[in-house]
């Protein structure tokens, strides 16, 4: 991601505790090193340490103690320390920090890094990731079937999903006076002129537009990409698109400045807490699905990292994480636990999508997402 403001820089969620978080406060909180924290509080004591790089607010937190229950439980089970660092604010930014040592085969002092699928694919392609020890991850059997074989890591030798999310359309039917169910409607309905936003992240926006043209975003053809670019350009030139955004569509949608937009499912789950009128749909032509993945960088502790992957794929632990994070859980069995603990989460189709929904989403071609020529064409349209 090279955008000035993305969902990554704004956190993975637009709201916390029902309140939209302002951009300046987030950037202040997430700037710099990202808060290196030893959950054990013991400063080592001769124990092994697992060091994790993750996005902000992407694991469960006890609001009273401000500790992370999942991390604490892992430490207790294995008698180790965990240094959990919230320093992944943007895929490209993180890559820029670690590329030099990794390209020389050097350790980056991390055992797990969590990156979006297209960047994870780059890491694997460049040889910057270690194979995980599958013998230590029996709980990998709980991985959802739809996520088992991505093109960039077909046997999941290097990766395991952390969380996934959907990209679709969010809108306020009370302001519009009806529903928005297609990208064509979003881009051409006169009522929406100047009242919509699209996303600054190319895979999300172009994936939706390509599908609206009947093209396949999972294997991007240059001609199909150009058709989508032309359609997007028309929506810009007509004034239909107000602006391109990262997570900052969220407060605009919440306030009614924007009536409809391309949006991420996890954001809308949070915004609906304050405004139940908001609706999220997958376009009739199809939506996108993306995944953030656990990887072991070169020099990482494969054994300890693999044990952590196994730990978070225990359905009870996955349910604990999911109750806080509210994106799509990759672990089978977590929903059944949450049905007893918190049915409102378990029954939310944006957190546990139906089979019908999953059949109507596609993952954007990871090589195309990392193609410089295609990215330049997209950036020229959105003015970045």
Describe, in plain words, how this protein is organized in 3D:
This protein is of the alpha/beta class. The protein has helices spanning 23-30, 69-78, 91-103, 117-125, 173-176, 183-188, 202-212, 222-237, 249-255, 265-274, 302-312, 315-325, 334-341, 343-346, 355-358, 366-369, 372-382, and strands spanning 15-16, 19-20, 37-38, 49-53, 81-85, 112-116, 129-130, 159-171, 196-199, 241-245, 260-264, 279-281, 287-297, 361-362. The strands form two sheets. Strands 3, 4, 5, 6, 7, 8, 9, 10, 11, 12, 13 and 14 form a twelve-stranded mixed beta sheet that branches. Strands 1-2 form a two-stranded antiparallel ribbon. α8 (222-237) runs parallel beside α17 (372-382) and α12 (315-325) packs across α13. The N and C termini lie close together (12 Å).
Using brief descriptors, characterize the structure shown.
17 helices, 384 residues, 12-stranded mixed β-sheet, D-Maltodextrin-Binding Protein, domain 2, 2 domains, two-stranded antiparallel sheet, alpha/beta, single chain, disordered N terminus
């Amino acid at each position: 991601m090279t955008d000035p403001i993305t969902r990554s820089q704004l956190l993975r969620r637009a709201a916390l505790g029902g309140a939209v978080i302002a951009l300046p406060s987030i950037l202040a909180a997430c700037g710099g090193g990202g808060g290196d924290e030893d959950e054990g509080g013991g400063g080592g004591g001769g124990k092994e340490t697992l060091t994790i790089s993750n996005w902000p607010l992407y694991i469960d937190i006890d609001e009273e103690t401000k500790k992370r229950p999942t991390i604490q439980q892992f430490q207790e089970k294995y008698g180790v320390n965990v240094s959990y660092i919230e320093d992944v604010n943007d895929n490209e930014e993180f890559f820029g920090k670690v590329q030099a040592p990794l390209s020389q085969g050097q350790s980056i002092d991390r055992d797990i890094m969590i990156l979006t699928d297209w960047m994870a694919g780059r890491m694997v392609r460049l040889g910057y990731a270690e194979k995980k020890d599958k013998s230590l991850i029996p709980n990998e059997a709980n991985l959802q079937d739809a996520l088992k074989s991505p093109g960039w890591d077909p046997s999941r030798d290097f990766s395991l999903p952390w969380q996934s999310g959907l990209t679709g359309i969010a809108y306020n039917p009370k302001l519009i006076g009806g529903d928005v169910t297609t990208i064509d409607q979003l881009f051409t309905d006169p009522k929406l002129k100047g009242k919509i936003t699209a996303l600054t992240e190319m895979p999300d926006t172009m994936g939706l537009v390509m599908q609206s043209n009947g093209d396949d975003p999972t294997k991007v053809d240059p001609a199909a990409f150009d058709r989508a670019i032309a359609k997007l350009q028309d929506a810009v030139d007509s004034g239909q698109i107000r602006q391109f955004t990262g997570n900052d569509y969220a407060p605009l949608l919440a306030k009614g400045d924007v009536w409809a937009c391309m949006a991420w499912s996890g954001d809308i789950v949070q915004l609906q807490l304050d405004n139940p009128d908001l609706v999220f749909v997958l376009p009739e032509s199809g939506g996108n699905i993306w995944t953030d993945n656990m990887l072991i960088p070169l020099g990482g502790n494969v054994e300890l990292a693999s044990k952590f992957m196994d730990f978070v794929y225990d359905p009870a632990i996955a349910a604990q994480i999911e109750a806080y994070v509210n994106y799509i859980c990759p672990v089978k069995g977590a929903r059944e636990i949450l049905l007893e603990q918190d049915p409102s989460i378990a029954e939310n189709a944006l957190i546990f999508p139906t089979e019908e929904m999953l059949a109507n989403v596609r993952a954007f071609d990871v090589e195309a997402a990392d193609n410089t020529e295609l990215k330049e064409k997209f950036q020229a349209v959105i003015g970045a």
